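Q: Can someone sanity-check these two? First one:
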Amino acid sequence: MPPIITAFKSSPDRGRGLARDMRVRWAFEEVGQPYEVRLVSFGEMKQAPHLALHPFGQIPTYEDGDLALFESGAIVLHIADRHPGLLPGDADARARAIGWMFAALSTVEPPIIDLQIAKLLENDKPWAEQRLPLVEERIRERLGQLSNRLADADWLDGEFSAGDLMMASVLLRLGDSGILEEYPNISAYIARAEARPAYKRAFDAQLAVFIAASNG
């Protein structure tokens, strides 16, 4: 039986491929491994069966036999560790790829999430207008550093890896912010990631869930 992951029954990203199960779907597609999806509602995510898999009541989760995992980064790393295609064979290159995974989640993503929170949840606060430029400046600082490091390379460290998968997934959250336009090499980097057949298959699978939910 293939591994089972959980995803939103009705995703708040409206099929744009931004929900975190997308990262796991993409990883499975890159390594050519089958998987199944169990859709959960927001209510089900806070109930005991799901909380036993994810103590914070979020998605995605991963189940394979007796193994249950949560957190998209941990799940993608597990998939990459078990199947060839997302981590280099060379030990040093492998370590660097994993380092980029951590950088995506720990260094680049937090200010991007702050921006989404500022726009969606805090825009009615009296201090929102003053806070937004500060959040955007933190993002620009990180993108400037990333742009300098990427330079004119196709990927972060040699061939495409799980580090690129996680970094591109994080950066895609900035798609409607206008900030990415200031960094042409990062925009081109994201476009290369989106052009990968594995990404397209994962995106289409997640979009199909949104369409089905909308029609239901």
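And here is the second, same format, sequence then tokens:
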Amino acid sequence: MLGAAEGVPLVPVETYGPDATPIVIAVREPPVCGEWSYDDREVEEPGGTVLTAVVRPTPSPIAPPTPVAPALPVAAVPPVAPVAQVAQVAPVAPPAPVAREGPPLPAPVTPDTDPIRAACERIEALATALRYDEADQALRALAARSPDAPEIVLYTGVLACRRARWRDAIAPLRSAVGRLPDHAGAHYHLGEALNKCDDLAGALVAYQRAAALDPTHWRALKGFGIVYDRLGRPEAAAPFYRRAREAQRA
């Protein structure tokens, strides 16, 4: 039935025909807000029941799109002539330096290129790192290149002291202080070798010379105190120990 198909409830209404015969007509409930309105057409169902039909809008069929004629071929565009090569622009010269106000800048420091000094620094670094064999090789290379350099005898004695070969160090160190009288390290190492070999008077002279050349040489000042202690003079050793501590902390 139309009402059953659309799911709209039907309400039976009793009325009378022209001959006073009672007739039952199924009528839908009145539409509510938002529903489609019913029209006045009636549809007679099989069996004699008259129904009031609901007319719903039927969507009109969409006409198929009109085929578009293929576009006409576009005429070939002639190739564009190549653009002329742009002339290279000459590089712009950097601006001239502006005069700087204030005091002049210090001159650049050039690295030390003295081969003897560089070799001595390498020997000292290797000896400090306890790499004595490599230090000996560097010393032999220096002797082969500069056999008359006084640093050769100096580091021969220094390496002997580092290896606790005190007696072997005395002769080269005496030669070194004779050739390098202003080298505080040479005097200090000579004082160490003499102190270890029980030449206490000679050690005091060597330590004194080293401390005079370098008042901050705390090892030489400490050597003074050690020698005075060995001589049984602790009162003379105390000031040198104190000066050694102050120099070491400075």
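A (reply): Looked at the second one. Confidence is low (pLDDT under 50) at residues 1-6, 32-58. The first helix runs from residue 2 to 6.
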